[in-house]
TrEMBL record:
Signal peptide start-end: 1-24
Domain called Cytochrome c: residue spans: 25-103, 106-187
Keywords: Electron transport, Heme, Iron, Metal-binding, Signal, Transport
PANTHER family the UniProt entry points to: CBB3-TYPE CYTOCHROME C OXIDASE SUBUNIT FIXP, CYTOCHROME C4
Naturally occurring in which organism (per UniProt): Jannaschia pohangensis
Any GO MF annotation of the entry: electron transfer activity
Protein name as it appears in the record: Cytochrome c553
Length: 195
């Protein structure tokens, strides 16, 4: 009896331990990881340098996918490839959860109508640059330098994505600049989600 009981208990502990260890994410642990990111992305995900994107309040799926892409080399960048090389899969899930656990508010400039937004982009990225999909990023308030760089990377094939590569291939440099300016003009506010 006692032995059977101990076995059951042992089994329970094990069963309880596995989901714990394999937990999808832990935003609080992610906050600690984010101290490695703050010089460029801020602790709240509001970027502090023009070549880095705002990542606070982005869908967790998108953030995690991009970090893994940098880590495996599917997406390359001199800074991010180095940063992600040093992160475990768990740290990536956690830090993605931390940044995703922020709220974003996007505001179009005074007097500008959402109807003027780039029509080819709004179905996924929204008129104000807040993504409508889990696997697409927010573009609101990103610098025009960042948006321009990414669209040209998709166009040249140095960054690849089944949807964005085709879309960017059809855009002229002038159109890219115009669209980048539209989303860059949006004011973005990022705040931590209240516990
Ligand atoms: C030295 C500056 C720097 C540091 C530190 C840094 N990043 Fe970045 N990050 C960048 C730059 C620059 C880019 C844009 C890369 C590109 O142009 O493709 C970027 C891109 C990203 C992206 C892609 C976002 C998107 O919209 O596609 C994510 C996600 C990201 N960083 C997360 C992190 C996390 C998490 C950390 C900390 C663990 C971190 N970064 C540390 C500079 C940095
Ligand atoms: C059908 C949905 C869809 C449409 C339409 C679309 N996008 Fe995207 N976009 C995506 C997805 C999904 C990604 C993420 C790509 C990846 O995983 O690398 C993305 C990524 C991007 C990025 C990279 C941003 C970052 O943070 O790194 C930019 C810039 C971008 N899109 C601009 C545009 C523009 C400009 C248009 C209109 C001309 C447009 N997109 C239309 C789905 C879409």
């Amino acid at each position: 009896m006692i032995r059977a009981f101990a076995l059951v208990l042992g089994g329970l502990t094990l069963a309880g331990g596995i989901p714990q260890a394999a937990r999808a994410d832990d935003p609080e642990a992610g906050r600690k990881v984010a101290t490695m990111c703050r010089t460029c992305h801020g602790i709240d995900g509001y970027a502090t340098i023009p070549i880095a994107p705002h990542i606070g309040g982005e869908p967790v799926e998108y953030l995690e996918a991009q970090l893994l892409a940098f880590k495996t080399g599917a997406r390359e960048h001199e800074m991010m490839s180095v940063v992600t090389a040093g992160l475990t899969a768990q740290q990536i899930s956690d830090v993605a959860a931390w940044y995703a656990a922020h709220e974003v508010v996007a505001t179009l400039p005074d007097g500008v109508s959402p109807d003027e937004a780039p029509q080819a982009c709004v179905s996924c990225h929204g008129a104000d640059g807040i993504s409508l999909l889990l696997d697409a990023p927010n573009l609101a308030g990103e610098t025009n330098i960042y948006i321009d760089t990414q669209l040209k990377a998709f166009k040249r094939g140095t960054r690849k994505h089944e949807i964005m590569s085709d879309i960017a291939a059809g855009l002229s440099d002038a159109e890219i600049r115009q669209i980048a300016d539209w989303y860059a003009a949006v004011t973005l506010e990022i705040t931590p989600v209240a516990e």
